[in-house]
Specification:
With 469 residues, chain A is an alpha/beta fold. Chain A has 13 helices and 19 strands. Chain A starts with 6 loop residues before the first strand and ends with a helix. Classes of the chains: A alpha/beta (469), B mainly alpha (337). At the A-B interface, α8, β17, β18, α9 and α12 of A face α1 of B.
Chain lengths: 469, 337
């Protein structure tokens, strides 16, 4: 299944900047460690993207992204057109929100979100028989616009990282002064089990992706673009390879399947053999990494000056009857989604995102947000009685799984003794990006990654408190 | 519809499906052929020793858990492993009351005082054996010959010794190949060693079955293959060098590998996950250290056998190996210390 050749490279003795050292270096097109959870992708990866019905009422929280929440510019009772601005960005690390359907603002109130907190939000009631035509905005032409105009356009379109992080894309694309972006890295890895949204987007929206790449190359100043794709999506890789427009410096690179390759750092190591420094960003090794679906969205929206109204979501899992990849309006309530997709009688857990890093939902009244890449439904058959937690037997499985070469077992023991500061200072706790590989392999079922989430937040709080004093 | 209360849990929501209890159970499966073969070689006496140590270990674990008002942990199979391993390191004719004491000490002193499974510093079975070696030096070096014709109908005279009584001797005691070499300079046939057709401790005989058990565990990813490999390689290399220097004084490396408790120790005792280092590099150091100590004790020490002390010493050092040898963290130049 995996077709790749290990590349035998001899690097020059002179130290090349930002490259892993070594006179002879076996760069194996992959990163160290990692895991191979069952993929379950063939249940949905052959199903084309279909439009999901519009819900009668959609719910739009203002805090859909990382950064400060958007600020409402509409009032109760107002009628809005699909694509109209509902809320504007508040500051640089923030994005606006557009109406996903034409309809009436029924209520402005606190709405539930996935974190359990309430957020200011809008209840928007769709017009029952509207054509749902999208409002056009001020187009941004890729040939004539300046990089600043494109960045502004990306922010105005309300685009955030669609891979799940929901970080405002324009912030990520801004190359800091004194840094240079050499390569634009497109992330088509999608290493989460069950999810196939990026796969379908690559198969069906190649033109949008290439249009997006034009914008991104101009913004970042990168000279070339590499699309990283895992070997379980060879059809997508071949499709993209075939459709590269003339003159566009794009390279498609297939890497072996391994979790968590979809993390930027792992992707960069797999494709380029470079390591992003601890505490640093991809730009420190001359790379800006963007998700393929985000790129497709940029390529689709910017030529029309539109805002983001919908996104592709994989609805899957043993608890769903009509599995598939759907184009769903943002704000569609989860309850409506599950009713339409047909949930099984004995559903037990619902995850937003994949089963490795996704969040379990406690309340079906929350809605689809920009960062939702999948909905996975498990029934009681998959959720076994909570397994007994044994003491750590120091088997080392977590050490062999951690993509960052941390020592999760030691960190877990230290977390129990609340030695948070030492964990951060000596054992690189803050580098952990919570991929969950350690918890996945632990035979004693120790919730390691949950310990680290808590420890990290405590360290951050202490640091913030220390900075104030 | 959809009014069900949903469960929530923290990610990851899927696991690999291996449990600690399953690992321990599989170690017992891997040990069983060795135990059965030793019963076949030594007869009823060996069976009684193995049963006594296992029962003592399990009972002690259960009793201590109840005493400290905790849930009994015997269902995790680790006490069974300790009991079986201890039994396999004892001579088949070992008096049962001594074996029982060994099992109690292995669990109580080797594991429970440290806090139970996962917290012990030393391999519990070897702690039990070390105490027995100190307390009953004669009984533990009184070897019983293998393949006696009447081994399934009668037991050794020493087996049913009353507590605190001098064990009776049968009049025929077989020397182990290692002591024969050490004190009389007789080398045993390699094929006999590998197939276990020799005298020795209950489980120290058939190297082939031990290796098969190890391969089973390694194939199921329940054992760190680096530990037995590094120990055996080190012993082979060091004794090979010595043998090349003077093959009259020093035993051949093959003899070193297959004699005594080296195989059992390397495959089943040094690999005790709790007592061994956690990082791959640390494990190589740990294995090499055990190999070195085995050769040094066997060749220059006062005892014919040194595997037990070698492993116990390396167990003591292993937390320090973990502290000293750490993998380079992604994106960092050096290890912080």
């Amino acid at each position: 299944m995996i077709h790749y050749k290990p590349v035998f490279k001899i690097y020059p003795l002179k130290r090349e900047k930002n490259r892993r050292m070594g006179f002879i270096n076996f760069h194996k097109n992959t990163f160290k460690h990692g895991i191979h959870p069952p993929e379950h992708k063939d249940e949905t990866n052959g199903l084309p993207i279909r439009q999901f019905p519009f819900a009668p009422v959609i719910i739009l929280p203002m805090a859909q992204h990382i950064g400060s929440p958007s600020e409402m510019v509409v009032r109760e009772g107002q009628e809005v057109v699909r694509g109209q601005l509902l809320a504007k960005a508040t500051g640089y690390v923030s994005v606006p929100l557009h109406a996903p359907v034409s309809g009436t603002i029924r209520k402005i109130a606190n709405v539930p979100t996935i974190s359990g907190k309430m957020s200011r939000g809008i209840y928007l009631e769709a017009f029952p028989s509207s054509s749902q035509e999208v409002m056009e905005g001020r187009p941004i032409d890729v040939e004539t616009a300046t990089p600043e105009e494109i960045l502004q356009g990306i922010q105005n379109a309300g685009i955030v990282g669609l891979g799940g992080a929901a970080f405002p894309t324009h912030v990520k694309l801004k190359v800091p002064d004194g840094k240079h972006c050499e390569i634009l890295m497109l992330n088509g890895i999608e290493c989460e089990p069950y999810l196939t949204t990026d796969h379908r987007v690559m198969l069906e929206q190649a033109d949008d992706i290439y249009m997006g790449i034009r914008y991104l190359l101009k913004v970042t100043g990168a000279k070339r673009c590499i699309i990283g794709i895992e070997a379980n999506k060879k059809d997508a890789a071949e499709h993209l390879q075939k459709n590269i427009p003339n003159g566009l410096p794009v390279e498609v690179k297939v890497v072996p399947v391994k979790y968590p390759q979809g993390s930027e750092k792992m992707l960069i190591t797999s494709v380029l053999g470079r390591e992003v420094p601890s505490g640093g960003l991809p730009i420190d090794v001359g790379v800006v990494a963007v998700n393929v679906a985000t790129t497709a969205e940029i390529g689709r929206l910017l030529p029309h000056g539109r805002g983001i109204q919908e996104r592709v979501i994989t609805i899957t899992g043993p608890g769903v009857k009509k599995k598939g990849n759907y184009l769903i309006p943002i704000g569609t309530p989860l309850r409506y989604v599950l009713e339409q997709a047909g949930a099984a009688e004995n559903i037990s857990e619902v995850y937003m995102g994949g089963p490795m890093m996704g969040t379990a939902v406690s309340n079906l009244d929350i809605s689809i947000v920009k960062g939702t890449s999948g909905i996975v439904v498990f029934t009681e058959n998959e959720i076994k009685k909570h397994p007994k937690i044994f003491p750590c037997i120091k088997c080392g499985a977590c050490v062999d799984a951690c993509p960052l070469s941390l020592i999760p077992s030691k960190l877990g023991i230290m977390a129990k003794f609340e030695a948070y500061d030492e964990m951060a200072a000596k054992y690189n706790l803050m580098d952990c990006f919570e991929c969950g590989s350690c918890s996945y392999v632990c035979p004693s079922h120790i919730p390691l990654v949950q310990y680290f989430r808590l420890s990290k937040s405590i360290v951050r709080k202490r640091k913030a408190a220390g900075d104030k004093n | 519809m959809l009014n069900k209360t949903l469960n929530i849990s923290t990610s990851p929501h899927i696991t690999k499906g291996i449990s600690t209890e399953a690992i321990m159970r599989n170690v017992v499966w891997a040990l069983l052929p060795v135990a059965i073969f030793s019963v076949y070689t030594f007869g009823l006496s060996a069976l009684l020793v193995l049963a006594t140590t296992t029962a003592a270990a399990v009972l002690t674990e259960h009793f201590l858990c109840k005493k400290s008002k905790k849930e009994s942990t015997i269902s995790d199979w680790s006490a069974v492993i300790t009991g079986l391993l201890l039994g396999l390191t004892l001579p088949p004719s070992f008096p049962l009351w001594m074996a029982f004491i060994g099992g109690v000490i292995a669990i109580a002193l080797g594991k429970f005082v440290f806090g139970g499974l996962g917290y012990n510093v030393f391999n519990p079975a070897l702690v039990g054996r070390a105490v027995l070696q100190a307390a009953f030096p004669v009984a533990i070096t009184t070897w019983y010959p293998s393949f006696l014709p009447e081994r399934f109908s009668s037991v050794s005279a020493a087996t049913f010794t009353f507590p605190f009584m001098e064990p009776a001797t049968d009049g025929f005691t077989g020397a182990t190949p290692l002591s024969a070499f050490k004190f009389e300079h007789i080398t045993a046939q390699t094929s006999d060693l590998a197939l276990g057709l020799i005298s020795g401790s209950t489980g120290e005989t058939c190297a082939l079955l031990i290796i098969l058990g190890g391969i089973y565990l390694i194939a199921r990813n329940m054992m760190n293959w680096r530990i037995p490999v590094s120990i055996l390689l080190t012993v082979f290399a060091l004794s090979g060098i010595l043998y090349l220097i003077d093959n009259q004084v020093y035993p051949s490396p093959i003899f070193m590998l297959f004699s005594g408790g080296l195989m059992l120790g390397a495959v089943f005792m040094a690999t005790d996950m709790v007592g061994s280092p956690i990082t791959p590099k640390g494990v190589w150091v740990y294995g090499a250290l055990i190999g070195l100590l085995v050769v040094v004790i066997r060749i220059w020490g006062g005892l014919p056998e040194g595997v037990m002390y070698a492993i116990l010493l390396a167990n003591a050092i292993s937390p320090h190996i973990d502290n000293a040898i750490r993998p380079r963290v992604y994106g960092t130049a050096k290890i912080k210390s």
